[in-house]
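Before surveying the methods themselves, it helps to consider a single example record, giving the amino acid sequence and backbone structure tokens:
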Amino acid sequence: MNFKLLDTVNFDGEEVTEIELNLEKLKASDIDEAEEICRKLKVNAPVIELSKKYSVAVAHVATKLPIELFNSLSGRDYQRLHFAVSSFLNASESEVV
């Protein structure tokens, strides 16, 4: 899944305009890794899978890009990333083609 940014990010001297999320390649162990990252970051959410930090952790695991890149996204791209990741993970079988 190619995630196009609405607002370009300058990260490590490079302009980032899109991120290839590779969510389709996630395995159960990757989801567990994202949860562990959230625990280490002490994410305090009633349902961790619904938090924006969890979506960032999943994107980080899927892309191997630094979490700091995702944390430097504009507010609207951060919200869109959360929606894209959570929508992908929670899609019903009939929605997945």
Q: What stands out?
A: DSSP finds four helices and two strands in the chain. The CA atoms of residues 10 and 16 lie 6 Å apart. The mean pLDDT is 93. The radius of gyration is 13 Å.
